[in-house]
Design a protein that fits this description.
This protein is about 30% helix and about 35% strand. By secondary structure, the protein is α/β, with parallel strands linked by helices.
Amino acid sequence: MRKIIIFIFIILLTIIGYNYLYQDHRDINSEQTDFSLTATTLLNEFSINPNASEKKYLNKTIEINGSITEKNSDNLTIDDKVFCLLLNNTQNILENNSPIIVKGRVIGYDDLLELVKLDQCTILKK
C-alpha cells in the first residue's frame, strides 16, 4: 500500500512539474498593453534605477514610440535606446528616422550597451 501511495505521489509531482515548465507560449500581439511610453522615458527609468525598473517592466507587454535609428531583417532599434526583436521580417517597409510604435515584451536591460531589450515585437504604427 505504501509503494502505491509513493508511486501516485511521484506521478502527481511529475505532472505538476511538466505543466509548470512547459506552459503555453504567450501571444504578445493579442495581449493588452501594460505600459505605453517613449523609448527615451523607458531608458531613463532603467538608467536611474535598473532594479526597480526590472520589477516594474520585466516580462510585461508595452508599447514604445520613437524613431527608427537602426534596422535589420529581424530587429530594429528605436532612438538608439530600445532594441526590438521582431516577429516578422519587415525590413523592406521600414525607413530609418521614420516614426514608429512597437508593441513587445520587455526581456531586460543591457547596461553595457545601454539598451532596453524587447522580444516578440509587432509594429502597430509606422
